[in-house]
Amino acid sequence: MGTLIKGKPVADSLKEDLKAEVEELKSKGLYPKLTIIRVGADPSDLAYERGALKTMENVGIGAQVIALPGNIAQEEFVRVLQGVNSDGDTHGILIFRPLPQQLDSNAIKYLIDAEKDIDCFNPANVAKVMEGDETGFAPCTPTAVMEILKHYNVELKGKNAVVIGRSMVVGKPVAMLLLKEHATVTICHSRTKDLQGVASKADILVACAGKAKMIKSEYIKNGAVVIDVGINVNENGELCGDVDTEECMDRASMITPVPGGVGSVTTSVLAKHVVKACKIQKDLL
Ligand SMILES: NC(=O)C1=CN([C@@H]2O[C@H](COP(=O)(O)OP(=O)(O)OC[C@H]3O[C@@H](n4cnc5c(N)ncnc54)[C@H](OP(=O)(O)O)[C@@H]3O)[C@@H](O)[C@H]2O)C=CC1
Ligand SMILES: Nc1nc(=O)c2c([nH]1)NC[C@@H]1CN(c3ccc(C(=O)N[C@@H](CCC(=O)O)C(=O)O)cc3)C=[N+]21
C-alpha cells in the first residue's frame, strides 16, 4: 500500500524560504511584483489566478491582473504586452495559455521580455530548459513536479521515467528536467501504442494528459512513484487527476493527490520565479 505525498509541505517549505528572501529585498528598497495577463475568463485560468494571487500575498510579492477581452486583436494585445515589458515595477509576467485563436502565439512568444518570462513562453527560455541551463525559467508546473520529487527524496538517477503528455506547458519540459537528473525518459502521447505496456515499466510515472482517471492499476509498476499533474472536473463537478488514485494506491509506493498535489506547489514556484526575476533584473544574481 502506497502513501499519498501531499504538495502542502513542499509549498510551505518553498514559501518559508521566499518570505525571508522577499524581506531582504524589501530592506534594500526592492519590491518584487508579478503581472498576470489574462485574455477572456477561462475557468482553469481563473482557478490558477486565484491561487497565484493568494500565494503572492502570502509571501509579500506584489501582484496585478490585466484582464483583456476574449476577442482582443493582435495589435492591441502586443501594445499591452510591450507596456508590461517596459514597466520597471513588474519583474515577472505570466500570460495564461493557450491564447485564443485570433492571437498569434508564435509571434507573441518572442515578444515577452525573456528576463520577465517566468513561465517559459519565450523560446530563449525553452532553449535553456533543453540545454539544462538554469539561468532562465523552466515552466512552473514541471518545476513543481521536480520540487515534489526532491522534497520526498525520490532517487532519479538511472531510473525509468515515463511522461504521459507532450505539451510545452507540462509534458515536454518535465521530460527535460527529469533527463537533467539522469533519469531514462520516455515521452508518451495520444498516438503512443501500448501506453499501458510503456507506463508499467516506469519507476517514476508523470501523468499530464488531462484525461480524468485514465491511469488504472494495470499501468503501474509495483513500487512506482506516481505524479499526477492532471486537473480535471469529474461528473460530480469535483476536481480529479489523470490517475485513478484509489485503484493505483495498491501498487504505487507514492502518489500525489488531486487536489492538494502538484497544483498546490505550482503557485509557490511561480512566486520563487518572480523573486529570481527581480534579482536578475537588479543584478543581484
Ligand atoms: N497542476 C498544475 O498546476 C497544472 C495542471 N495542468 C493540467 O495538466 C493536464 C495537462 O495539461 P496540458 O499539458 O496543458 O494539456 P494539453 O491538452 O495541452 O496536452 C495534453 C497531452 O496529453 C496527451 N494525451 C491526451 N490524451 C491522451 C491519451 N489518452 N493517451 C496518451 N496521451 C494523451 C496529448 O497528446 P497529443 O500531443 O498527441 O495530442 C498531449 O500531448 C491538464 O489536466 C491540465 O489541467 C496544467 C497546467 C498546470
Ligand atoms: N502559462 C500558463 N501556465 C500554466 O500553468 C497554466 C496556464 N497558463 N493556463 C491555465 C492552466 C491551468 N492551471 C492551473 C493551475 C492550478 C490550478 C488549481 O486549481 N490550483 C489550486 C490547487 C489545486 C490542487 O490542490 O491540486 C490552488 O492553487 O489553490 C488550476 C489550474 C495552470 N495553467
Automatic annotation (TrEMBL):
Span of the signal peptide? none
Question: Can the keyword Repressor be found in this entry's annotation?
Answer: no
Q: Does the keyword DNA repair apply?
A: no
Q: Which residues bind NADP(+)?
A: G165, R166, S167, I231
Q: Which cellular component terms (GO) are annotated to the entry?
A: cytosol
InterPro entries hit by this protein: Aminoacid_DH-like_N_sf, NAD(P)-bd_dom_sf, THF_DH/CycHdrlase, THF_DH/CycHdrlase_cat_dom, THF_DH/CycHdrlase_NAD-bd_dom
Which residues does UniProt call coiled coil? none
Keywords assigned by UniProt, alphabetized: Amino-acid biosynthesis, Histidine biosynthesis, Hydrolase, Methionine biosynthesis, Multifunctional enzyme, NADP, One-carbon metabolism, Oxidoreductase, Purine biosynthesis
| UniProt pathway | One-carbon metabolism; tetrahydrofolate interconversion
Identify its protein family.
Belongs to the tetrahydrofolate dehydrogenase/cyclohydrolase family.
Q: Outline the subunit composition.
A: Homodimer.
Name listed for the protein in its UniProt record: Bifunctional protein FolD
Gene name of the encoded protein:
folD_2
